UniProtKB/TrEMBL annotation:
Keyword hit for GTP-binding: yes
Residues binding GTP, per UniProt: 87-94, 133-137, 187-190
Protein name: Translation initiation factor IF-2
Organism: Gracilibacillus orientalis
Single GO term (MF): translation initiation factor activity
Gene encoding the protein: infB
Role description: One of the essential components for the initiation of protein synthesis. Protects formylmethionyl-tRNA from spontaneous hydrolysis and promotes its binding to the 30S ribosomal subunits. Also involved in the hydrolysis of GTP during the formation of the 70S ribosomal complex.
Part of the intact protein present: 123 to 492 of 699
Cellular component aspect of the GO annotation: cytosol
Amino acid sequence: SGSISVAELAEKLNKKTNEIIKKLMFSGVMATKNQDLDEDALELICSEFGVEVEQEIEIDKADLATYIDEDDPNKLEERPPVVTIMGHVDHGKTTLLDSIRHTKVTAGEAGGITQHIGAYQVRENDKKVTFLDTPGHAAFTSMRSRGAQVTDIAILVVAADDGVMPQTIEAINHAKAAEVPIIIAVNKMDKEGANPDRVMQELTEYELIPEDWGGDTIFVQLSAIKREGIDDLLEMILLVAEVEELKANADRRANGTVIEAQLDKGRGPVASLLVQNGTLKVGDPIVVGNTFGRVRAMVNDLGKRINSAGPSTPIEITGLNDVPLAGDQFVVFKDEKQARQIGEMRQEKQLEEKRGTQSRVSLDDLFEQI
Ligand code: GTP
Ligand code: MG
């Protein structure tokens, strides 16, 4: 795969190279003219400058959103928080996800984890927490570029022996842009050089100030590898979730977002979805991005077949006519005819746009180059 440099992007966006470098600097990314941009930096710049890009996203988003009826406030009930883990390379994101899953899921549930659906749920004190299992910042970049917001709470992992690093700062910027609360997980506390005070000190620069120092940011010290501090972290997540008053109405047709999707040789298009509102049921007529179908089968994060899934539940479905994209919205319709009509309309529109907008800069075009 190729790449795109600061200068090349500037040309594409019809901006001065210096403007791009300045924007990047304000976001904590130091770049030179000929430096290649990663996907995160690219998304950042596009959302800063990309009028065209944003307009496209708005239209696309509005399209499906217009089919979602407004909620009756009396029917709203508490729902589990959806949590994303972010942080610098090697600071322990994967280890933390694994240790949460293994202490909280495998122990109690027969069979353990049998398949990967990009998200999973754990239970703590009779409450559920949903974790997005997407690597790094993907949950914020590719999803937000499609106008989707799935994360309620961001966990920022910072290694206690390494401190704040470039991708730590990127993660902070993403979480702030998405306006989600940040919990700091000071990891690797078992290591000899662990210095949590330094981590706290460094993060004050980004307005992440611990309660002890007069701020309101929650810091949890843990060792992902030794599985220490996991309960504290989950408790804090539930505390923050309570303050956020996360609500949904289980008693309605479902809508939500695609976490990941692929073509399975035997089963056809398979999509991992996060139900964000309502209850998704087997048999439901559904439009997913520019694809459609009927929910043929549904499995949960333990690989167990289920017939329905409520708010904040990650599941995998089959029955779509094509493979949707991560970050696509899905909406359930009353009948199959309507789902088909709207799905086909969207498919056609997508084809038209592809033909008609070759010369325009879109996020997808840019991403294809990297
Ligand atoms: P990327 O996915 O590459 O960004 O890394 P990551 O953030 O997922 O880090 P990962 O979980 O792969 O951990 C990186 C290294 O740190 C591995 O060798 C882990 O074993 C180690 N590690 C993670 N957590 C801890 C911890 O709590 N203590 C110690 N001592 N090592 C840890
Ligand atoms: Mg990892």
